[in-house]
Amino acid sequence: MISPWYKTWSILRGTPQCLAPDEMVLHLGKNIVLLLLVVSSSTLAVFGQRSAAHPEWNNREFAPAPDTSSPRDDSIDQSYRLPTDTVPTHYTIRLHTDLHTGSRAFSGIVDIEFDVIVPTDAIVVHNRDLLIASAALYAKDQDGLLVEFGFPHHEFDQRTEQLTFHPGQVLPIGSYVLTVEYSGLLQTSSNSGFFLKSYVNDDGERRYVGTTQFESTNARMAFPCYDEPLLKAGFTLWITHIAEYNAVSNMPVEEVVPSEEHEGYVTTKFGPTPKMSSYLLAFGVSDFVALEDGNQQLYARPNAMDEAEFGLEAGVKILDALSEYTYVNYYDYMPKLSQMAIPDRGGGAMENWGLVKYAETGLLFDPARNTYRTRKGIAVVVAHELAHQWFGDLVGPQWWSYIWLNEGFANLYGYIGADLAYPSERYWDLYAVENVQNAFGPDATDSTRPMTQDATTPSAISGLFDSIAYDKSGSVLNMFRMVLGDDNFRAGLKVYLLNRQLDGAVADDLYAGLQAAIDDKDVLPDGYTVKQLMDSWTTEPGYPVLTVRRNYNDGSAILSQERFYADKRSPNANVWYIPYSFASASNPDFEDLSDFQWLSTKAERIETGASADEWIIFNKQQTGYYRVNYDAHNWLMIANALREDPSVIHRFNRAQLINDAFNLARAGRHDLALTLDLLRYLSNEHEYAPWAAANGVLNYFYNKLRGTANYHDFIVYVDALIGPVFDSLGDIATVPEDETLLDKYLKQLISTWACRVGYTECLRQTAEALHTAVETNTPVHPDVSYVVYCYGLKGATDDEYRWLFDQMINSNNEAERQLLIDALGCAQDQSQLISLLTVAIGSNSELNSLLNGERSRIVSSIYSAGRFGVEAMIEALSDPLLAQEFVGRFGQGTLNNVVSNVASRTNNDGELEQLEQFLAALGDLISPETAAAAVRTVKTNAAWFETYEGVLSTTYFSDFTN
Fold it and tell me: Which residues make up each annotated binding site for Zn(2+)?
C-alpha cells in the first residue's frame, strides 16, 4: 500500500465550455472552480432503466434482516462496515492523468450525491491512499438547486479505511452533495485500483495503459466513495488525458472536448451509468483501437488487433445466448458492451458492467500461434464474465457474504454459455472434471468454509474469492438446476433477476425466485421448499459422502450420509438434503435426469429393483455435489463392467467413479486395491473426461514414486493403461482437420504420459518434429506445440534450444510466450536451464520485453518440469552471487517458494543430500524455519512408504509387474 505522504498534484481547473441545462457552476474556496451535475438521483435518466426500478434506499435494505438471511456475523469485527445513516445516489467524477508519459500521478474531483436517511453529524466514506485536498458540502433544496452548507473537516481511520467528514452540525433528512478534491498515484506493484501497465509498439516505443480493477474493495483507491456492494449509485465520469490517447468506460462516450487548461489534452465525457455497485465502475486510458460488431467492441493494443476476432465473436454469440437463456435482455439496461485486453495483467478478468477487462491471454487468440486450450479458455472466461452482467451487475450481493450469488453463477454459466454459443466443442464435458472434482479437494478439510460466510476486512473479503465461491457454488447451483429442471431453473432466475434488478440480493431472494417457478408443479416432495433444501448446502461447510450398502438377497440398499473428510472420519451433525438417482446394469439409462429422490435423514432403506448380479451407480452424470461409496462387491461389478465395455456407463460417471474411488480409498473408506483395479479398464478408454480424472491419480503416484526403487513397477502399470490408447493416436505431432476439441485434450494427456515414462516412439516423434521445426524455421502446429517442444528438448542441441527461446522472446502473443516458457523449462541439459534462469534474473536490451510475470513463470517452469530442472535450480542458486541477484529480482518469498518446491520433489537419500547442501549454500538467505520445513517435507515423503497406503500401493504395483 502507498501511504499518503506525497505532495498534492495539479488539480482540474477551469470551467467546461458547455453546460447542460441541469448543470451549474459553483465557486468554492481557494478559487477552485468545480462543475456539479445537479440532477436529482431519483429522477436521473439512465439508459434502459425500467420504470419498476427499486427506490434508491428502502427499509428492507437497512433494517436488521432476519437471522436466516443476515450477512452480518457478530463474531466478526463489524467496525469495518459503513454507518447506514447516509446512502449515495450518484457520483460525478472528473479525473486528470498524464499517464502517457509513464507518470503515476493523477488528480480528481468527485461530487458525491447522497441522501441522509437518519439525521447525522458525520459523512463516512472509504478511502485508500488518496490525499484529500479540500471538501465542500451542499444541500439540495426542493427545486434541486444547491445551497452551500460549508466546508467540513475530515479525519481518516487507517485501520478501517474510513474517511469521515464533519460538517459541524447535524444534517437533517434530505439530499446533499459532497465535493472532494484529491490526488493519488497509479499502482505499479499490484493490479488493483487505478493501475498502470505498458507495452512496446511496432516502432519499439513504450506505450502506457491506465486501467482499473475495483473488485472487491479497490474503488476507494481511485475516488472517495461508499465502497460496499449494496450502496449502489449512478456514475458520471469525465477523464482528461493526452489527445493522442483515448478513454473507454462502462457507458458510451457522449463527447470529447479539448481541455482549456492543458494544451494537447482532451476531456472524454461518458454518459451516466445505471445504478450499480462502486466496484463495477471501470475505465481505461490508452492508445488502443477497437474492433466492432454492432453494439460490441473489443479494445486492444494496435499491434494485437489481428488477434481480436475470436474474442469479439465469442462476446457477441455468448451475450445473445445468455440474453435468451435468462429471458432478460442485456440491452434493456446497457447500450453497449466493450471488452478490453490488458497487457501484462497476468491472468483473470473483471466483469465491470459494460466494460469487461481481461488479461490478453483471456481474450486474444491467434489461430497460427495459440492452442485449443487458449481458445477454450477464452470462450469460457468470456462466458463467465458476461454471465456476471446479470449475476453481479444487474443483481449483486447485498454483502460479500453472498459472493457465491455472483461467482457461483458465473462459474456455472461460463461453461453453459460457452456450450450454447459453440455446441460442437462440447465444453460441458469439461465442467465436472474442472470444477466439481476441483472443489472436492479444498472442501474436504476442517478449515473449509460454508458458501455463505461473512467477512469485513479487505483482506478477509478478498479471501472469500476462493474455490468455495467459484467451483463449489457453481457445482451446487448446477445440482439444483438439474433437480428443478433447466426450464424451471431459467424461469426462477428470471423472477429473481427482475425482482432484484439494480439492487442487492441475499440467498433468500434466489430461493424465492426459484420457488415461484415451481409452485404447483410437483417438482419437490410435499412439504419441502427450495430454501429448506438449498440452505443445507449453502450454510454448512463441506459435503457428504453417500454410502450405498446393498442387500443382495432382497434388492434393497441402505443409503447413509456423513461429512467427507480427506484424511479422517469424524462425526458431523449436519444433514444434507441429497438428491439422488441411479442406473443399473439392467436399466443403464444415464441420460434421464428428470427424476430424483431425496435422502433427508442420516440413513434410509430403499428398494433398488436390481438383481444380485448387476451393478448400480448413483449420482447420474455426477450432477450431485457429493461422493458415492459402495460395498466392495458392487465396486467389483462396476470394475468388471468397465473392462467389458466402458460405454455402458456414462463418460461423466466413469470420471466420477475414478475420482471418487481414489479419494475414498485415500480417506480409508475402502481398499486402494479396488481403485487401482478399477483403473485398469483405461486401456480401452478413449474419452477425455475419465482420463482427466485418472490423470490426477497417476500424477499422485508419480510424485511419490519417481526416483525410488518402486518407480519401475509403477511405470509398468502406467504402460498397461496408456499403451493401447497411445498406439491408437498415430502421429502425435500433426493435427488432422477433423480432430475434435476433446480429441485434442486426450491426445495431449496420453502423449505427455507416454513421453514422460520414456516411450521411444513418443520421444522419436517429438524430437523429429522439433528438429524439423528448427531446420525449416517453422513452428509446429500450436495444438501439439507443448508436447513436441517439451519432450523434443530431451537431448536437444544448444542451437535448437536457442531457436525455441528466440520463438518466445520474439513473440508478441502473451499466451504463446507462456506456453514456450513452460516448454523451455522441460530441457534436460543443466547448462540450458541455468542459462534460462539467468535470463529471468538479469536484464539487457534483448530481454526488456520480458514481463515480470514471465520472469516468475520461468522460475516455476524450471523446477516444475522434472528432476533435471530441480537439480539445475540447486546448482545455480548454490552460487551466492546468483542467489543474491535472485532475491534482488524476485524477493525473499520467491526464494522460499523455490526451496519448498525443491523439497517436495525430493524422493531419495541422494536427493536429500543435494537438498541439505543447497540449504547450506543458501545460508542466511533463508530462515532456519524455511530450511527446517523443507527437511520435514522430505521426511514426510519418505515416511509415506511406511504407511498403510504406501505399503499397499507399492505392493500392488509390484504384484502387477510380477
Answer: 384, 388, 407
Residue 614: what residue type? E
Would you identify the CATH topology of the domain 797-945? Zincin-like fold (1.25.50)
Per-domain boundaries in the chain: 82-287, 291-332+360-541, 543-648, 797-945
CA–CA distance, 99 with 263 (Å, rounded to integer)? 15
Q: Do residues 46 and 236 lie in contact, with contact meaning Cβ atoms separated by under 8 Å?
A: no
Give the helix/strand (H/E) hosting 193: strand 193-200
Q: What is the pLDDT of residue 7?
A: 22
Specify the pLDDT at position 144. Answer: 84
Query: In the 8-state DSSP scheme, what is residue 91?
Result: E
Contact 285, 270 (CB under 8 A): no
Which of these, 175, 193, 176, lies nearest to 184 by C-alpha position?
Answer: 193
CATH 3.30.390.30 fits 291-332+360-541, yes or no: no
- Asked if 385 is an active-site residue, the reply is yes
Instruction: Give yes or no for a contact between 414 and 384, defined as CB atoms under 8 angstroms apart.
Output: yes
The neighbour count for residue 1, using CB atoms within 10 Å, is 12
Please name the residue that has the C-alpha cell 468454509: 449
DSSP letters along 37-69, please?
A: E---GGG---TT--TTPPPSS-HHHHSPPPTTT
User: Cell digits for 400?
Assistant: 460479500
Show contacts of 190-193: CB within 8 Å, 24+ apart.
191/345, 191/346, 192/218, 192/221, 193/128, 193/129, 193/218, 193/219, 193/220, 193/221, 193/222
- Of residues 557, 572, 566, the one with CA closest to residue 603: 557
Q: Which of 449, 438, 334 is nearest to 400 (CA)?
A: 449
* Rg, C-alpha atoms of the chain: 30
Q: Which range is least confidently modeled, 52-56, 379-383, 403-407, 710-714?
A: 52-56
What are 195's three cell numbers?
Answer: 493501475
Q: Which element (helix H / strand E) includes 212?
A: strand 206-213
Q: List the binding residues.
A: 384, 388, 407
Determine the straight-line distance between the first and last CA of the chain, rounded to whole angstroms.
Answer: 61
Residue given cell 458520471 in the structure block: 236
> What are the backbone dihedrals phi and psi of residue 404, each rounded to the nearest 5 degrees, phi first?
-65, -25
pLDDT band at 71, cuts 50/70/90?
A: low
Query: Grid coordinates representing 79?
Result: 467496525
* Marked catalytic residue, from 385, 540, 814, 854: 385
CB neighbour class for 208 (10 Å; exposed up to 12, middle 13-18, buried from 19): buried
Q: Which of 240-244, 506-510, 572-576 has the lowest mean pLDDT?
A: 572-576
If one looks up domain 543-648 in CATH, what number appears?
Answer: 2.60.40.1910
CATH placement of domain 82-287? 2.60.40.1730
Contact 753, 715 (CB under 8 A): no
Total-model pTM: 0.92
120-136 pLDDT, tens digit per residue, is 999 999 999 999 999 99
Cα–Cα dist 718/725, whole Å: 11
Q: Each residue of 655-690: pLDDT tens digit?
A: 999 999 999 999 999 999 999 999 999 999 999 999
Q: What is the pLDDT of residue 934?
A: 97
d(CA 852, CA 891): 12
82-287 and 543-648 agree in CATH topology: yes
Q: Are residues 654 and 660 in contact, defined by beta-carbon separation less than 8 angstroms?
A: no
- Gap between the Cα atoms of 652 and 662, Å rounded: 16
Element (H, E) at 439: helix 437-440
CA–CA separation, 859 and 905 (whole Å)? 15
- Tens-digit pLDDT profile for residues 515-564: 999 999 999 999 999 999 999 999 999 999 999 999 999 999 999 999 99
Which tops the pLDDT comparison, 559 or 39? 559
Could you give phi then psi for residue 40, rounded to 5 degrees?
-60, 125
**Mean pLDDT, rounded, of the chain:** 92
